[in-house]
């Protein structure tokens, strides 16, 4: 049993790791793809990609995932050839690598869904072209060729003691750098074992801009068990002055293995001083410096870094570096539910304490209970916030996948697309990310397929040949906004109207009176499209209605702006989380409803006399803008006739650009609610996002404000929307 | 006597696999290091009976780790098992030259690793 659960644990780790691998691989490939266009990709990154496939191959063969290990084996060999300079990245090779990521994803999906670790259901449907048959098979690169003329044997220059610990790849990189005539230095730097990771990252950050780090050689145990001396083998691409500047304040003993043009004569034994706290050099057993080229190298001077001192005084901790854990989202959901239940209990306690306070004989006890329950409230709020924070992931998870797809699609339609991503570190609930990915994908697909013109067309109108799609995320209050903006042809309103009329959504007459905004919004209706011919990518524009439905299901809204000839911008507004939300409790016709607070801009009391009629609708003028009013009792089917009473409660609901005044009877208070779905039989119910337990054994329906706003404006199409009017 | 083992591999799944394979078959306690640096941090503080390491790791590779271990006072004789795929013959040879005891190619089965670890512990036990 325990044996088995161990096996399951390893298996789970494998699936999780494979998923992480896909994410980092695709990020790296995108970078490499960019770099290849302008020059040579970063060898470190290429090696990283190799190592990824290498690890995946080892794991998948160990766990018996045949199709995956086969795929990984092929890609590993290919990457091995590339990192060792036997092949170069070509567009064809990059394509196939991107495709392989998709295949890995497919295999993982099959395993995750079927639980069949062998992934027997998997078929690689790609048409196979062996690299030899393809037009550009990589071939031998024009850099780093090991031909007789340029061949340099590192053995003649670098000591065997260094060479013996270099992996094949590191040796190859060393050779390439030697061939390019770069200077090679070995730098001894003392690190505190406790903080070596941060310190090393710092050093990497200093050295990477000026050269290539070939490897890190830990020296044998030093006298101080808390310290470690590491020799960093660096091929310097910049000047000696740059090296000195980069290592300023570090305290590094530099020995020259192969000097460059500007290596100072004295530099065979150089010391870039550390901050004043540096101690006398410890003894050095520096090895590998008796190179043929670098003459008379003596023991380099070694010193400790200043920051090390104080850390040594602290208790040395053996804590692992990676201090993060992966958590199943299901477990977080469970915790969130518990928090929801705790909230309910809290409300009950609050109620009891209030009741007690009104009874004079228990007054002291009541005050005490009140105090305790206040403390409980605060802690509960902290806990809730903490769990919410854990659920948050950066949108980069989704953006990486999108940029991969974008690349594939742009090649598919033969359009050069520059995807500009910003705000990738914006955080949003994990579940929202997962649900949002498809709709955003669809919008991008439409942009590439129908929005961006082909190169000739773009040239003709004076645009750059490559199209730009900007993918932006940012947070605004309790919402996250995701924008997809292209610099394509824009949406032709005339064609939209035609299609809408053809589909019978509105009459020609009604069409004539629509505002520009309203016209654009018609693309979210099923069957309304501007494209005549269907194609493989986005079909016939089918799906904008689906996009909208999916986003609405997440309590979000999608809006579109477009200008002919300039481009189109879609804006998706989403709540940051759906797990637990603050809500306003309101009463309408003696029923209690919860309205998500993040959809309410303000609450006010209006007088019946302030209500005007505009185009048959009741409206209210709020700070100079016309706000249409929706009487909630009427909306839910039991309209009370007559004018709005003398003094009425009004919630100003706002989503995206639209605002609507919801007329309610009473405002009961505010409460955090966990929304529970209504269940299968009530699946079709509109206008409600779910139900929630209010604590006093009362249930309340949670109003789906987005759906209400949607429906209101859909059934009052003639009404000019307030935002449009304000412009 | 319970033996203390160190596994160095940057893959969590591989570490979990080795741990799971040994569990119940070899009387041992296992420390895990996800990088060469973590291994360097652990090595000076504990007497390990066996070290199991991958070669291809970022920053400090397995070869450097073997050399470091062999040069250290504490572990100069510790058996080192290399777990790696067959990809680089050259790296494999270097590992053995630097003093690795056994090269166990991936993929290996749980009994494979159990056999190797158990026999190395037994060997060492017999010596001392």
How would you characterize the overall build of this protein?
The complex is a heterodimer of chains A (727) and B (128). By secondary structure, chain A is α+β, with helices and mostly antiparallel strands. Chain A has five domains: 2-114, Up-down Bundle (Four Helix Bundle (Hemerythrin (Met), subunit A)), CATH 1.20.120.160; 154-311, no CATH class; 335-389; 395-575, 2-Layer Sandwich (Heat Shock Protein 90); 581-726, OB fold (Dihydrolipoamide Acetyltransferase, E2P). Chain A contains 21 helices and 23 strands. In chain A, strands 15-19-20-18-17-16 form a six-stranded mixed β-sheet. Chain A has a five-stranded antiparallel β-sheet with strand order 2-3-1-4-5. Chain A has a five-stranded mixed β-sheet with strand order 7-9-10-12-11. Chain A is globular. Chain A starts with a helix and ends with a helix. In chain B, helix 3 (62-71) links the parallel strand 3 and strand 4. The mean pLDDT of chain B is 88. Chain B contains five helices and five strands, in the order βαβαβαβαβα. Chain B has one domain: Response regulator (Rossmann fold), CATH 3.40.50. The interface between A and B is large, with 48 and 49 residues.
Protein traits:
heterodimer, A: alpha+beta, Four Helix Bundle (Hemerythrin (Met), subunit A), six-stranded mixed β-sheet, 21 helices, B: 128 residues, alpha/beta, Rossmann fold, five-stranded parallel β-sheet, 5 helices
Note the total helix count of chain B: 5
Helix fraction of chain B, binned, reads: 40-55%
Order of helices and strands of chain B: EHEHEHEHEH
* Domain module count of chain A: 5
CATH class bucket of the largest domain in chain A: Alpha Beta
What is the number of strand segments of chain B? 5
* Class inferred from helices and paired strands of chain A: alpha+beta
CA radius of gyration of chain A is: 33 Å
What strand order characterises the main sheet of chain B? 2-1-3-4-5
As laid out across the biggest beta sheet of chain A, the strand order is 15-19-20-18-17-16
Instruction: Specify the biggest β-sheet of chain A.
Output: 6 strands, mixed
Count of domains of chain B: 1
- The CATH superfamily of chain B is identified as Response regulator
Shape of chain A: globular
Enter the CATH topology name of the largest domain in chain A: Heat Shock Protein 90
CATH class of chain B: Alpha Beta
Supply the CATH architecture of chain B. Answer: 3-Layer(aba) Sandwich
CATH topology of chain B: Rossmann fold
Q: Give the full name of the CATH homologous superfamily of the largest domain in chain A.
A: Histidine kinase-like ATPase, C-terminal domain
């Amino acid at each position: 049993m325990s044996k088995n659960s161990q096996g399951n644990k390893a298996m789970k780790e494998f699936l999780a790791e494979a998923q992480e691998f896909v994410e980092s691989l695709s990020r790296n490939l995108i970078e490499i793809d960019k770099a290849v266009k302008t020059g040579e990709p970063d060898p470190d990154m290429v090696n990283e990609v190799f190592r990824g496939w290498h690890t995946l191959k080892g794991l998948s063969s160990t766990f018996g995932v045949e199709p995956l290990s086969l795929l990984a084996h092929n890609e590993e060999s290919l990457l091995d050839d590339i990192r060792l300079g036997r092949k170069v990245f070509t567009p064809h090779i990059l394509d196939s690598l991107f495709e392989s990521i998709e295949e890995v994803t497919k295999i993982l999906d099959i395993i995750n869904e079927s639980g069949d670790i062998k992934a027997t259901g998997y078929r690689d449907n790609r048409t196979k072209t062996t690299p030899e048959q393809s037009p550009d098979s990589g071939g031998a690169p024009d850099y780093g060729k090991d031909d007789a003329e340029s061949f340099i044997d590192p053995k003649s220059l670098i000591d065997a003691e260094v060479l013996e610990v270099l992996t094949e790849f590191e040796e190859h990189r060393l050779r390439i750098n030697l061939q390019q005539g770069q200077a090679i230095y070995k730098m001894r730097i003392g690190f505190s074992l406790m903080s070596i990771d941060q310190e090393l990252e710092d050093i990497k950050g200093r050295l990477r801009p000026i050269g290539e780090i070939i490897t890190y050689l830990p020296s044998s145990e030093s006298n101080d068990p808390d310290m470690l001396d590491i020799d960093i083998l660096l091929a310097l691409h910049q000047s000696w002055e740059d090296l000195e500047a980069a290592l300023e304040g570090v305290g590094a003993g530099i020995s020259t293995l192969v000097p460059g043009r500007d290596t100072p004569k004295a530099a065979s034994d150089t010391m870039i001083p550390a901050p004043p706290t540096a101690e006398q050099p410890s003894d050095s057993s520096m090895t590998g410096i008796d190179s043929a080229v670098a003459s008379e190298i003596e023991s380099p001077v070694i010193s400790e870094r200043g920051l090390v001192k104080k850390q040594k005084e602290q208790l040395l901790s053996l804590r692992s570096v990676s201090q993060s854990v992966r958590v199943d989202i299901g477990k977080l959901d469970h915790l969130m539910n518990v928090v929801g239940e705790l909230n309910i209990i809290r409300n009950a306690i609050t109620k009891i304490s209030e009741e007690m306070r009104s009874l004079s004989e228990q007054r002291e006890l009541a005050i005490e209970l009140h105090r305790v329950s206040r403390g409980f409230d605060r802690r509960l709020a902290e806990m809730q916030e903490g769990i919410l924070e854990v659920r948050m992931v950066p949108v980069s998870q989704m953006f990486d996948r999108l940029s991969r797809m974008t690349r594939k699609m742009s090649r598919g339609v033969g359009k050069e697309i520059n995807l500009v991503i910003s705000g990738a570190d914006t955080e949003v609930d994990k579940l929202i990310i997962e649900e949002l990915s498809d709709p955003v994908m669809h919008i991008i697909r439409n942009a590439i397929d129908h929005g961006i013109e082909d190169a000739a067309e773009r040239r003709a109108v004076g645009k750059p040949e490559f199209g730009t799609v900007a993918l932006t995320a940012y947070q605004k209050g309790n919402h996250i906004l995701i924008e997809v903006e292209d610099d394509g042809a824009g949406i032709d309103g005339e064609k939209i109207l035609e299609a809408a009329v053809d589909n019978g959504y509105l009459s020609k007459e009604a069409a004539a009176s629509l505002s520009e905004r309203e016209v654009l919004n018609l693309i979210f209706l099923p069957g309304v499209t501007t494209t005549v011919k269907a194609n493989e990518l986005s079909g016939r524009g089918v799906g904008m209605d689906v996009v909208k439905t999916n986003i609405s299901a997440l309590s979000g809204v999608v809006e579109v702006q477009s200008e002919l000839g300039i481009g189109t911008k879609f804006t998706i507004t989403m709540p940051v989380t759906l797990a637990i939300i603050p809500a306003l409790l309101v009463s309408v016709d003696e029923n209690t409803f919860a309205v998500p607070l993040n959809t309410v801009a303000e609450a006010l009391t209006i007088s019946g006399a302030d209500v005007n009629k505009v185009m048959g609708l009741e409206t209210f003028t709020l700070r100079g803008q016309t706000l249409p009013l929706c009487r909630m009792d009427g909306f839910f089917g039991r309209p009370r006739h007559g004018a709005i009473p003398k003094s009425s409660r009004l919630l100003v609901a706002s989503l995206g650009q639209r605002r609507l005044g919801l007329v309610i009877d009473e405002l009961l208070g505010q409460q955090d609610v966990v929304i529970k779905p209504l269940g299968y039989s009530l699946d079709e119910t509109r206008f409600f996002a779910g139900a929630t337990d209010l604590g006093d054994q009362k249930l309340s329906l949670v109003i789906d404000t987005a759906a209400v706003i949607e429906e209101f404006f859909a059934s009052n199409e003639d009404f000019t929307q307030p935002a449009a009017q304000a412009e | 006597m319970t033996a203390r083992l160190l596994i160095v591999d940057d893959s969590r799944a591989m570490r979990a696999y080795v741990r799971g394979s040994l569990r119940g078959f070899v009387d041992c306690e296992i420390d895990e290091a996800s990088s060469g640096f973590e291994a360097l941090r652990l090595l000076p503080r504990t007497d390990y009976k066996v070290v199991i390491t991958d070669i291809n790791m970022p920053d400090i590779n397995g070869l450097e780790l073997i050399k470091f271990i062999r040069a250290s006072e504490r572990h100069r004789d510790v058996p080192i098992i290399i777990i790696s795929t067959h990809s680089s013959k050259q790296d494999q040879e270097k590992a053995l030259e630097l003093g690795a005891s056994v090269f166990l190619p991936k993929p290996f089965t749980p009994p494979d690793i159990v056999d190797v670890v158990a026999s190395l512990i037994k060997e060492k036990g017999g010596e001392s």
